[in-house]
Amino acid sequence: MRGAVPGLSLALLAAESGARLCAIIHYLVRGQLGWFGLSIACLVPGYAAQLLSILWFRADGRAPGCWLLALHLLQLGLWKRYWDVVRAAAGAGCAFGEVLAQLGDVCVLRLLEALLQTLPHLLLQAYVVVAVDPAGFIPGVSAGLSLLSLAWALVSYSHFTCLLKPGHLSPPAAVILCLLLWRTGMLGTRVLALVLFARLYSFWVFAVAGLHWLLMSFWLVAQQTDIVAQPCRWRLFNCLLGAVYIFCYINVRPGPSKTRVAVFYAVST
């Protein structure tokens, strides 16, 4: 299972990107320029992950050439990283520590891209399917693949953190499948609830989501999360993670998390 996780991640990323491109073309062909523009706009935040990927290449001593820069400009930088991990995992002379380091970089970058790019696209396509075009096949497929890809990004990140722990091996396939089903169900219900609320109450959904964002951000500050040292970056990190907590829980602190998860679900429900 050494190369199965990055290989599946690459396949899901390709499927999600292809479905997103089909949805953009679908709106353009049908003259729905508003949805076309919003779908294009959802691509822009993904460049944050691409820029960070370039910076990490430089930090690793690999000066990015024109070809690598072009791949990142086309938002294919993570594809390149996944492909490198698959090749390294298949090679007999590559050490496990080197593969783990490459896998960690791409898992973190993919999770960032999924939260910044895939999640807004999922919300947009889900709203189109629920409120605008219930019979829309292409937006529905794009929303479904975005949901699955986002859930898998969370699962692959959890899989990587398990490998980091001393003495921990790769979780069995059954465990990963259960994690995927849990993440998919949790994200799907949250997205559906927000979309239905937006359909009924329009812009009031931003007030509800904003209140939830504030509550989660203050809760993170109260926990004194010290994953970021600088005060300004620490506040920014808590604010960004508070926005993520509108949809799902991500454990960023070492140690047992049962109490924190219980508080999260108590507030979310």
Notes on the structure:
This protein has 269 residues and is mainly α. Helices cover 77% and strands 0% of the residues. Helix 1 runs antiparallel to helix 5 (77-90), helix 3 (47-59) packs antiparallel against helix 6 and helix 7 (137-164) packs across helix 8 (173-201). The chain starts with a helix and ends with a helix.
Keywords:
269 residues; mainly alpha; 0% strand
Short description:
The protein is mainly alpha-helical and 269 residues long. Helix content is 77%, strand content 0%. The longest helix has 37 residues, at 96-132.
What layout of secondary structure does this protein have?
Elements: H1 4-29, H2 33-41, H3 47-59, H4 66-73, H5 77-90, H6 96-132, H7 137-164, H8 173-201, H9 204-222, H10 231-244, H11 258-268
Helix pairs in contact: 1-2, 1-5, 1-7, 3-4, 3-6, 5-6, 6-7, 6-8, 7-8, 8-9, 9-10
Transmembrane segments: 33-57, 124-154, 174-196, 203-222, 234-252
Organism: Notiomystis cincta
Keywords: Cell membrane, Membrane, Transmembrane, Transmembrane helix
